[in-house]
## 1
Amino acid sequence: MMSKSRCDHGVCTVMFRVFRSSVLNFKGYNNLSVELVIALQAFVSSETYPPNEKKLSGGRSSYGSGKGRSHQGHTKYGFTLVKGKANHPMEDYHVAKFVQYHGRELGLFAIYDGHLGDKVPAYLQKNLFHNILKEEEFWTDPGRSISKAYERTDQAILSHSPDLGRGGSTAVTAILMNGRNLWVANVGDSRAVLSKRGQAIQLSVDHEPNTERNSIENKGGFVSNMPGDVARVNGQLAVSRAFGDKNLKSHLRSDPDITSANVDGDTDLLIIASDGVWKVMANQEAVDIAKRIKDPQKAAKQIIVESLNRESKDDISCIVVRFTG
């Protein structure tokens, strides 16, 4: 009789890591459906380990796809995240959920696009909304509370730099209050786009080195514009505002741009995405895709598929929030 044998733990661990690396660095998107890529990446994400392996990351890895809805209205959301073609771990993290807070419903949505590691975006996923909501003035002055929480969160990241490393992250956050009032804030180039009657309205501001050159130079930094490359702060970072980045912080800003919008009968949907989308797609193109697909999860997937078809190489994250229909 053939006996069953268990794989030696060391061998299993090596085999798992080889398989995991192959999947997470997979580059054949054009020949494989995005659904299968998402499923494979989710299976081998940092929440999946061989026996006795421990998770070292500070947050919940953002892979895969999902959806949800408001408990008090018709608003629905869906999200999809896919690792890019770079040879490093997934650095995009997200938040997408409805919560009850002090007797009111809040929709919390965010994309955090990390660089030089995933520790800062993982920290933001766990802490930024918590810090915003605990501000005493949140219900009376949301804008001021968001601004203060962004600043305090960045200071906390910098004070924990030995644990969180030298990396950083963009952030775009959206808070939907009682289904009617939308507050959007951002640092970096992750973007939020609203659709009203099918027309795209950008709510966030892309913080790029060339547009904030004066601020960078006044702080003693410089902006490089090398042929074939994007503008970079001190020849390194392609955004002019970010969380973390302790080595560059003296030349960067971390204060957010903040805007508010009323959600009314003309408001169709909100798209929040990392620059893996926006490098290859205009705001109106993304809205046109999402508008014709009623299921927001399928809409987010289709935006990802189109981004991949246009050869986006970065990590790609997309949340679609549908207010009507």
## 2
Amino acid sequence: MSSATSTALFACSRCFSRHPFEELSPGEQLCKECRGSFPVVKCTYCRSEFQQTSKSNTSSICKKCEANVKAYGKPTACEYCNIIAAFIGNKCQRCANSERKYGSAVTCEQCKQRCAFDRHDDSKKVDGKLLCWLCTQSLKRALARTKQHLSSVDKHKHRSHKSKNSHKEKRKSDSMKGNGNDISMGDVPLEKKSKLNPLQGELDPNSSDHVVAMTQLKETIASLQKKVQQKEMELLSKDKLITELKAQHHNDTTDLRIEMKNKERLNETKFSLMNSKIQNLLKEVATLSKSAKRNNKNVKSLTNDNSGSGTDSPSTN
């Protein structure tokens, strides 16, 4: 039995072509071609990445959150991570499950918010830090970009070194061919003299011109290597600055969300107080109007009694 038939093949959920399980994407089970034609986006609510499965439907809400919106309505901000994904209660599903599994939330070492959960496992920490879910994802993406950049720089160095070695081997083979031709012609002293670039002629390797050219080449190589190192350091510093700016932007957005939430709570309390005051004033107005109507009735009855007694007195005399 061959290896192709022994390995189990699984169908892509989009084009139904069969591939090994390792080549399919987790969750959606898409092959490489379908993954390339459909982009990976972040969910508006839970902020998790998912792959769109249709070009006509460009919604940025994952299937799970879309079902929750239909069932429970639009979510509110989670009291821990401030992600707008709390469909039931005041906690998102991720923080509720983590609190049930790992205990109460602790402070994240990156964003300084009380939204991280200690798993008591150092292998789950990123770069030795206890981070929340958002900071973990952003730091992992930054580390992956830095690693990819360093690998591309190493590949470029390896290719340049390989091309230099191939060029040297080519020159050596050309010189060996020239030496073989000289030997075949019977010119042995020239073979002992040469060992030079055939374009430069038969120069002495210990001559001043040759030494000057070699020193100039070494100096140019050293200066180019210094420039490459400087560029690499600049790129690393820029990547570090980008990660710091992203972290600062994340902290600013979380602070703004907390401030907006506090202002909303304050406005709600003020609104409730004003409503209660309005209700009390309306009650007072109602009681005052009732008492005024009663006083008007009493005054009218007194005036009627006085007028009746004045008309009866002349008839008695």
## 3
Amino acid sequence: MAQRLMNGARLWAICVVICVIYGGVKAADRVTGTIRFLMFDRCRVDSNQLVNVPDNNAAFAKSSCKPSEQFAIIVHGWREGTDSEWVVDMVSNFTAHRPGCVMVMHYANNSHTIDYFGELLPHFDKLANVLAAHLRRMESIGFDPAKGHIFGFSMGAQLALEGSRRFGLQKINRIDACDPAGPGFDTVPENMLLDPKQAARQVQCIHTSANFGTRRRDCHISWNMGNCGRDQVAARPFPKGSHGLCPYFYNSAFVHRFHPVPKPKLCVSQRLAHGWPRELRMGYHCDMNSGVSGELFSLTTRNFPFTDEQVFDGTIP
């Protein structure tokens, strides 16, 4: 009788271990198994030009994304996906202004959760690892990281920075991080020790909000938009509040110019940039080789294109 009880206990323990392991695998699959990378297929003439990146490396290398060309990756934020208005516009802008491959990291099955702190943030490491693995796969096929450009917004900006760091310090040529998420990051001491400038050779950060955006201003160039990077006169209800406007400013900047201005008197800066050239502008067309580093300020307007494109030579009150 005692022996049967002991055997039963052992069997129960084994079942518990198997269930825990299997449950852990299934939980991981729910996070990483639904992530997709889509690419813009320039060969298609229909409206659905975003297609899944082929799972087969040979098919990937022979697709419309050529390993010998430049590439860009867009990483969306919380409660967004490939159908988000600004993502659709940015794919179009990148294809018009940048030759080569355009991809989107689509993790909407995870990002569409209402519970940012309970259901999305705890999976940040797994999401960053998936991006790093995708970059390693691209490199193994023949893509050159020195020809890579990654844009991320909010949580996507943090993923772009961390995924690129895990891929290799400063291997990616450039990252444009649009109002990187602050909640869940600024309060974690380990995160504060990570230098965004190590994620790529050139890192441009664009700040538009104080409530959802990071307090950090330590990218190669850090733009404070509107009211000191804290809020915007164009802010509307979600999803186009001060935070959500950042990618809309970036999209506008493909055509319209957001120039630097002298630091407004009410704004504070610990790394104020000096001596910028008159033609310097925020966005994809920012000349990251201009020799300028530190914080820049740029005024915004209430309505599209969110800038009056004026070059300032005087002082700002």
## 4
Amino acid sequence: MNNIFVFVGVSWKLRHTLKTVDMEPLPKDCSENPTAFELNNGMQIPFLGFATAGLCRERATRHVYEAVKVGYRLIDCAYLYQNEGEDLFITSKLWNTFHRPECIEKAICTTLKDLRLKYLDLYLMHWPMGYQEGGDLIPRDACGKVKFSDVDFVDTWQAMEKLVEGGVTKSIGLMNFNKRQIERILDICSIPPVVNQVECHPYLTQAKLKAYCKKQRILLICYCPLGSLAHPHSRRESRVLDHDWVKRLSYKHEKSAAQILIRYQIQRGNGAIPMAATKAEIMRNFDVFDWCLDKKDMEDLDSMNQNKRFVSLVRGGPQGVGRQQFEI
């Protein structure tokens, strides 16, 4: 992690401020209250991050400023979100149209220029599938079908390793990868991924994938930990936040439903990057470190699993990223 991040004229000194823990579920008594994980390369990453997905540049600037003031130290952005215009970020992602090895250095240099940084702390491959290079974020033919690249993601990974060697990112990781795809990376890599960022919430606990990643010392980071609705048609479906058990735990602990769901992931030993729409939500979501869910609470939340997803991209393409993309 950067020792000093500069944001809106304020220096945030992070060295020695993060109490770390290995990738294990937190102690049930919360007596030590660690705030960061130690990755497999020795770096520290905070338990809790702030997601910028869906925020325009102006809102992203305002929300990130509030998040940093509250205490967030992990800011999650991506080329896809088109909001990499602020001064403080530590994580970004390689978008699908830049999977070809010769495009990767240009992609991260564009991100660094936009963020006014010399290096990133973490650079993720956003999806296993690559899209045809150049043009739209999701290129389509005249019939509306996505135009895929023929690049194998293992070649993309090997090119990303050179970014670490070149000092433009301290760590590299994966996003939306299943077990078989991770295995292909581990078979050829000289630098293993430090994280796998996936959709994860009580409707989609990712228990098998988590167990595999833990065995490989790859931290699971949860996006949409609140079961966020990614598409308008999902609004017809029940929200995780509104589930009776979540409401009951919210009443029991005198915390918001969002706080319950964030704390759930932290106690499982997962990182979490929730979104927040208001300053009050940003502050409330960060209040998850001095209280605990008990064993029965955790079991009840585990039992809500339906293998139900709110986020999907385009299924299909080469290298086994078709219908089985979301299987363990």
